[in-house]
Specification:
Helices cover 55% and strands 10% of the residues. By secondary structure, it is α+β, with helices and mostly antiparallel strands. It has a five-stranded antiparallel β-sheet. It has a two-stranded antiparallel sheet with strand order 6-7. 10% of the residues are buried.
Length: 320
């Protein structure tokens, strides 16, 4: 009897353990399935946010180039009008006066020739010699005009240098806040050295393995930040424009160093655009520099402005 009771208790205990085990496994499965579903939902949300951000950036690119095309069209129209105006002015000053002289000689010759024909028809010969002399004089004047017109050379000293504009177009880039070419998200690894202005190509954004230099190796959560509701405060960088094109980094450090220690100077756009970015080691130093919106560098008054750091998409997602 004791043996039977013990066996029954053992069987019951094993059954209860099996039931508890099954329940635990079910709970664990339900938990990880819920976590996986949440992760997938978050991924889809982040994909939508990423697409929205890039759509905003694409629209900025399109609108920027549309504005450039409109500016080019307006400039082309202005230059063509300038050529038309110059043509009319040259025509009036060089050709029209000669045309009028030729027409005047022809009218005189026609009139004298008709007059001579009438006198000959009437048998009057008294004024023939005088009219003949006048015709010969007008004919000589016409020949002189013909010779002058034949030797006339019309040359123009004008050209349309477009290489500078082409170079400027090559320097139109999507850049990060520090001037690095490319589309960068939070957590991106930047290249050790930035490509020089004007030499940036699609290949310069490729890794050695052929993949684009992007944040594929970083988690999506670190690249897409949740909405913060407002942009970040003013950074430690300032923007200077209106600079003389021969301004050097040393010139900038000499003048702007009085506001605080300078960490870095991005001066690669001075020669082409007359502007630069100066990065201080602290926000306070940048704030002191911004207190003087107009300063003199190399004898020229330039503008000191705050440098924007955050672009906020309509959906509220921010790109750092």
């Amino acid at each position: 009897l004791r043996s039977l009771v013990g066996s029954e208790m053992c069987i019951r205990d094993r059954y209860q353990r099996r039931v508890r085990g099954r329940k635990t496994v079910s709970e664990m499965a339900a938990a990880w399935e819920k976590t996986a579903e949440e992760a997938k939902t978050d991924l889809e949300s982040h994909k939508e946010s990423l697409h929205s951000i890039c759509d905003t950036l694409r629209e900025e690119v399109r609108s920027g180039f549309t504005a450039l095309r409109e500016q080019l069209d307006a400039r082309e129209k202005h230059l063509l009008e300038m050529v038309d105006e110059a043509e009319e002015k040259e025509k009036a000053g060089t050709l029209t006066a000669r045309q009028e002289s030729v027409d005047k000689c022809c009218e005189q010759l026609k009139a004298k020739t008709a007059e001579m024909k009438d006198l000959l028809a009437q048998g009057v010969f008294n004024n023939i010699a005088a009219i003949t002399s006048e015709i010969q004089e007008s004919e000589g004047e016409l020949k002189a005009l013909r010779s002058d017109i034949g030797e006339l050379q019309i040359k123009v000293d004008a050209q349309l240098p477009t290489q500078h504009a082409k170079d400027a177009i090559e320097r139109v880039e999507i850049t990060a806040k520090d001037g690095t070419p490319g589309v960068w998200f939070s957590g991106n690894t930047r290249p050790a050295s930035r490509p020089a202005a004007g030499n940036f190509t699609h290949n310069s954004m490729m890794q050695s393995g052929g993949e684009p230099m992007s944040a594929l190796s970083t988690p999506i959560r670190s690249r897409i930040m949740p909405p913060t509701g407002s942009p970040s405060p003013a950074p430690r960088a300032i923007y200077i424009n209106g600079l003389p094109h021969d301004t050097s980094e040393a010139d900038l450090r000499e003048v702007l160093g009085e506001f605080g220690e300078i960490d870095m100077v991005n001066s690669r756009h001075i020669a082409s655009g007359g502007f630069a970015f100066v990065f201080y080691t602290t926000n306070e130093a940048a704030a002191r520099a911004l207190e003087k919106p107009r300063i003199t560098i190399k004898g020229k008054m330039v503008n000191v402005l705050a440098k924007k750091q955050i672009v906020t998409s309509p959906s509220g997602t921010t790109i750092a």
